[in-house]
């Protein structure tokens, strides 16, 4: 037998086993602009995983079209078809778990979650909120900030706990409020900052860098401060290539 006929196990090419991408399920209620930011990050290999499903409690949510256009499983689960919040969250849990996610991302999901849901996915659910938490938990954050005459506003990514908008903060982006800002201008500027920081937080989690504990959040093993990591107005504006009219 010639050397060319001989096959040795030691000469076989050893190919590393493919590692399954970490899986993300996104929950939405509306247009899904933050979902689009996550989809774009994924398309540029900057998300660290794969969005495997998008679920909406509103059947006509535009975000479902965004998902379908990106080839992502889009699921409408209307909450009005259920008799109670508990019944709806039970059904939602079943749909989510069917997709075996590593992370649940709330991207404009306008539902208060039941304790059962929160505890089921505790430590692997992220939310984004349009304020510099703990300021302005709840709704109408821009109107409340303007009414108070604050000089700084922003947005926060945080882990979801049973306290509404009260889980450990991961990252924030600040915005200087100008004298001519309105609810609409704040909404637009804050949206841009949300689209900047949400993919960052998701990628940290999927890469194993970001973790939740009962006492807070850690990044690379270091406990994050109460406000998480905060991008200043100047840093965020530079990242977004904004024209800065502030002195």
Automatic annotation (TrEMBL):
Binding residues annotated for N(1)-(5-phospho-beta-D-ribosyl)glycinamide, in chain numbering: 32-34
Transferase recorded as keyword: yes
Pfam families: Formyl_trans_N (PF00551)
EC number: 2.1.2.2
GO molecular function: phosphoribosylglycinamide formyltransferase activity
Residues of the site described as Raises pKa of active site His: 165
Binding of (6R)-10-formyltetrahydrofolate, residues: 85, 110-113, 127
Keywords from the UniProt entry: Purine biosynthesis, Transferase
Annotated Formyl transferase N-terminal domain residues: 23-201
Catalytic reaction annotation: N(1)-(5-phospho-beta-D-ribosyl)glycinamide + (6R)-10-formyltetrahydrofolate = N(2)-formyl-N(1)-(5-phospho-beta-D-ribosyl)glycinamide + (6S)-5,6,7,8-tetrahydrofolate + H(+)
Pathway where this protein functions: Purine metabolism; IMP biosynthesis via de novo pathway; N(2)-formyl-N(1)-(5-phospho-D-ribosyl)glycinamide from N(1)-(5-phospho-D-ribosyl)glycinamide (10-formyl THF route): step 1/1
Function: Catalyzes the transfer of a formyl group from 10-formyltetrahydrofolate to 5-phospho-ribosyl-glycinamide (GAR), producing 5-phospho-ribosyl-N-formylglycinamide (FGAR) and tetrahydrofolate.
Family named by the database record: Belongs to the GART family.
Entry protein name: Phosphoribosylglycinamide formyltransferase
